[in-house]
UniProtKB/TrEMBL annotation:
Its cofactor is pyridoxal 5'-phosphate. Pathway: Porphyrin-containing compound metabolism; protoporphyrin-IX biosynthesis; 5-aminolevulinate from L-glutamyl-tRNA(Glu): step 2/2. This is Glutamate-1-semialdehyde 2,1-aminomutase. Gene3D superfamilies: Aspartate Aminotransferase, domain 1 (3.90.1150.10), Type I PLP-dependent aspartate aminotransferase-like (Major domain) (3.40.640.10). It comes from Microbulbifer agarilyticus. Homodimer. It comes from the Bacteria. Belongs to the class-III pyridoxal-phosphate-dependent aminotransferase family. HemL subfamily. It is found in: Cytoplasm. GO terms for molecular function: glutamate-1-semialdehyde 2,1-aminomutase activity; pyridoxal phosphate binding; transaminase activity. Its EC number is 5.4.3.8. It holds the Pfam family Aminotran_3.
Length: 427
């Protein structure tokens, strides 16, 4: 029995499913989750000291790789001055200044403790600002687990949403409209019919929670257009893509103006953090300036602030993003070539250092239906084969992969070689 198996058995006695976030339980791929002991750079080490080249990178935050010495030093030094005060610190202003400097449409920003809090608060703000209740989201996008967002499409796009989890009141789900990602006509039709009732659109500008799905040309532009016409607020959820697909996220990459941007992951360098920020007129509605309530005992805590500040400084080194993109391209091309040589149908998407592989005959995968039609059984065998070879991929076929600055050319070559070995066994 491996140590991970023993630890998982113990964990299940006291934690539901043995995990504190469901995807970690390996339910999608089967088998026992790998329990991690430590991490460094591109690598994870499990409880049995086995090393893995890691393409999850804590689900995105570790653009620099794990345990970057400067980030760790900053956190250790701050810890000696106290972990949290529940009173303002200069560090919060410094990180806020940095975000407002980098993101052109961010006049004011509020820190929270998770991506879920960021999107939940952004939606409350959009509703408070517009005085409208309905929100629009897209099938396959994930924005955290707040009630309004755990909703799937009803029988018709414009009918009431249906809770996607027990515990979400149907009366609340009524206000959430779920449309198809990359369906420009669907968005136009929805806004033509009920645009004046819609408080906001929330969207992942590159979807990273149904594998990796970039926006088709014109999709994000249409969202901007219908929001301008109807008075709805455009929320770009860049919790995953912010400081990831480029320094200024997907909105910088695709040149789209957001009213509110939600951030997380990278801006805390691996510490729990989130943020929502945007145009002054909207952000001034938040308490204590305005009537829309939002708060947090540990929000803006100094540990998260210093980890974020140090990370943001380091990632602004010249060429870092170009190198990340080049490495991601090399990995994706290498794996696609290996699949082709083994006669395994495989397609990939990538934007910056985010990527995803699809076991499908389709040339292009652009929405949730297509993602769901991929060969999950083959992905699961690929996942376990790669794990055995010492490569840690996200444990579900609907998750994106992430490259870090710490991955070396040798790591990428080793990953491609591992894929070759696994593909040979997959047929
Ligand atoms: N938005 C997006 C785009 C996300 O990917 C996630 C989580 N991966 C969230 C929101 C929720 O963030 P958290 O898990 O920190 O609550």
């Amino acid at each position: 029995m491996s140590k991970s198996e023993t630890l998982f058995a113990e964990a299940q006695k006291v934690i539901p499913g043995g995990v504190n976030s469901p995807v970690r339980a390996f339910r999608a791929v089967g088998g026992t989750p790998v329990f991690i002991e430590r991490a460094e750079g591109a690598y994870l080490y499990d409880a049995d000291e086995k090393r893995y080249i890691d393409y999850v990178q804590s689900w995105g935050p570790m653009v620099l790789g794990h345990a970057h010495p400067d980030v760790i030093d900053a956190v250790v030094e701050q810890a000696q001055s106290g972990l949290s005060f529940g009173a303002p610190t200069e560090l919060e202003t410094e990180l806020a200044e940095e975000l407002c400097r980098v993101w052109p449409n961010m006049d004011l920003v509020r820190f929270v403790n998770s991506g879920t809090e960021a999107t939940m608060s952004a939606i409350r703000l959009a509703r408070g600002y517009t005085g409208r209740d309905k929100i629009v989201k897209f099938e396959g996008c994930y924005h955290g687990h707040s009630d309004s967002l755990l909703v799937k499409a009803g029988s018709g796009a414009l009918t009431m949403g249906v809770p996607s989890s027990p515990g979400v009141p149907a009366s609340l789900a009524d206000h959430t409209i779920t449309l198809t990602y990359n369906d420009i006509e669907g968005v136009k039709k929805c806004f033509a019919e009920i645009g004046d009732q819609i408080a906001c659109i929330i969207v992942e500008p590159v979807a990273g929670n149904m594998n990796c799905i970039p926006p088709i040309p014109g999709f994000l532009e249409t969202l901007r257009e219908v929001c301008d016409q109807s008075g709805a607020v455009l929320i770009l959820d860049e919790v995953m893509t912010g400081f990831r697909v480029s320094l200024t996220g997907a909105q910088g990459h695709f040149d789209i103006d957001a009213d509110i941007t939600t951030l997380g992951k990278v801006i805390g360098g691996g510490m729990p953090v989130g943020a929502f920020g945007g145009k002054r007129e909207i952000m001034e509605q938040i308490a204590p300036l305005g009537p829309v309530y939002q708060a947090g005992t540990l929000s803006g805590n100094p540990m998260a602030m210093v980890a974020g500040l140090e990370t943001l400084q380091l990632i602004q080194e010249p060429n870092l993003y170009d190198e990340l993109t080049a490495k991601t391209d090399r990995l994706v091309e290498g794996v696609l070539d290996a699949a082709k040589a083994a006669d395994i149908p495989l397609t990939a998407n990538k934007v910056g250092s985010m990527f995803g592989f699809f076991f499908t005959d389709a040339d292009q995968v652009t929405n949730y239906q297509q993602v769901m039609a991929c060969d999950t059984d083959r992905f699961n065998r690929f996942f376990h084969g790669m794990l055995e070879e010492g490569v840690y991929l996200a444990p579900a076929s609907y998750e994106a992969g992430f490259m870090s600055a710490a991955h070396s050319d040798e790591d990428i070559e080793a990953t491609i070689d591992a894929a070759k070995n696994v593909f040979a066994k997959l047929k």
